[in-house]
Design brief:
By secondary structure, this protein is an alpha+beta fold. It has two domains: 100 residues, Glutamine synthetase, N-terminal domain (Ubiquitin-like (UB roll)); 304 residues, 2-Layer Sandwich (Creatine Kinase, Chain A, domain 2), CATH 3.30.590.10. It is built from twelve helices and 17 strands. Strands 6, 7, 8, 9, 10, 11, 12, 13, 14 and 15 form a ten-stranded mixed beta sheet that branches. Strands 2-1-5-4-3 form a five-stranded mixed beta sheet. It has a two-stranded antiparallel sheet with strand order 16-17. α5 crosses α6. It is globular, with a radius of gyration of 21 Å. The termini are far apart.
Length: 414
């Protein structure tokens, strides 16, 4: 929508409040609410002044910033009694009016622009699956159904959270979230799938669906569990309207993935520890968190960090599934870093061992692991070191600013 269309929409829907939202570096939405009369066509250019606070492990900074509403990034919030339009905002420094390094959403936009500048692809299209578990009266919904294998795609009484997901999907669709489907997951969690969107829009939808899950759970007095869960994403790179990860099932191809696809996956695995550092720092997962990271590739192993999957019903289509994003992590920072790793892998033709068997964490070298079941997260010093020596791929195209990477390093310190 253009600004005029947003204002017309507000009049049509009887909107009474505008909620400006922006992600903090830890992956949580912050917001400032205005009466709808404050939203004028000029406000989309001049913005709204606001003091913001940035907290790290060792320091706290207060900055004068300007929030600029994005007319093409908005949602109707169906969970509020007062008709409210959610508008996502970018963050500018008040005195210079340049984009703030604290704006993690802007990092995702720059990553997509850098992808186009390389000529590798026009867009990264990402399909995502948000997992969550609900706890009622001291028992998680997973504990009521026996072995997880029996709960996967279960129907009727075994699908304990079916009604919650139906209400969630209906409200999310009303809000403008691209809902594809929902079901009972393989580890007896609820999973809601968001349809394929450009990377920035995918991150926006992930933030909105997380907000709605939390709000609905709170209203129903249900405890929400996201610990140890990951958000799965399926990636396609599009060039001139064609997917470039599929090989057309060439007889010499492996899993039907093109060489570009393998190089993209190689980049992800090569920079795995740096990606993990970003995931752990935002939102600073505790040392006891069982965040399992595996440097493995598989055809269809759900435990693998990278899988090769059908991208649609077309057998020639392939996507790279990535499972390294914790369900509470900042999707803008983490997925932008994943795209940068893919670009780096493609540019440097980074190889990946082509193997048909699944390889689990127990058989991986200790240096490739991020966590184990007994000790939780490994030594954080190794993550700080990885981010220090392996950050050039993030700095390419000025996508990640140095102060942001320094903040991530600071957040990793105990």
């Amino acid at each position: 929508m253009k600004p005029k269309a947003v204002l017309a929409y507000c009049r049509e829907k009887g909107i009474r409040a505008v909620d400006l939202r922006f992600p903090d570096l830890g992956g949580r939405w912050k917001h400032v609410t205005f009466p709808v009369s404050a939203l004028t066509e000029n406000a989309f250019e001049t913005g709204f002044g606001q003091e913001l606070t940035l907290r790290g492990r060792s320091k706290e900074a207060r900055e004068q910033m300007v929030l600029i509403p994005m007319s093409n990034a908005n949602y109707l919030d169906p969970l509020l009694e007062q008709p409210t339009l959610v508008i996502l905002a970018t963050i500018q420094e008040a005195w210079t009016r340049i984009e703030s390094w604290m704006d993690s959403r802007a990092v995702t936009g720059r990553a997509s622009e850098y992808l186009r500048a390389t000529g590798i692809a026009d867009e990264a299209v990402v399909r995502s699956c948000q997992a969550f578990s609900l706890e009622r009266h001291g028992a998680t919904s997973t504990s009521r159904e026996g072995p997880p294998s029996q709960a996967f795609l279960s129907c009727g009484p075994l699908d304990f959270d079916f009604s919650f997901r139906c209400d969630l999907a209906s409200s999310a669709a009303e809000a403008g979230v691209n809902i594809e489907r929902h079901y009972r997951g393989e580890i007896a969690t609820s999973e809601i799938v968001l349809g394929g969107l450009r990377l920035l829009e995918c991150c926006d939808d992930l933030m909105m669906i997380r907000y709605m899950i939390e709000q609905m759970a709170a209203k129903q007095g249900v405890r929400l569990e996201t610990h140890e869960l990951t958000t799965a994403t399926q990636w396609s790179l599009i060039r001139s309207g064609e997917e470039i990860f599929g090989s057309g099932l060439h007889p010499n191809s492996h899993f039907g993935l093109s060489e570009i696809g393998w190089n993209a996956m190689g980049g992800v695995l090569q920079h795995a520890r740096t990606l993990a550092a970003i995931a752990i720092a935002a939102p600073r997962l505790p040392s006891t968190e069982r965040y399992e990271w595996r440097s493995i590739v598989s055809e269809n192993d759900p435990r693998a960090i990278c899988n090769v999957l059908f991208g649609s019903q077309n057998p020639k289509s392939r996507t790279i599934e990535y499972r390294g994003l914790p369900a509470r992590s900042n999707p803008y920072l983490h997925l932008a870093a994943v795209l940068m790793a893919m670009i780096d892998g493609i540019q440097n033709k980074t190889p990946v061992p082509k193997r048909s068997e699944s390889v689990y964490a127990e058989s991986e070298p200790a240096s490739h692991r991020i966590a184990d079941e007994e000790r939780g997260l490994q030594d954080r010093e190794s993550f700080i070191e990885a981010l220090a020596v392996d950050r050039d791929f993030l700095l390419a195209g000025s996508v990640f600013p140095e102060p942001l990477l320094d903040w991530i390093s600071d957040s990793l310190k105990e």
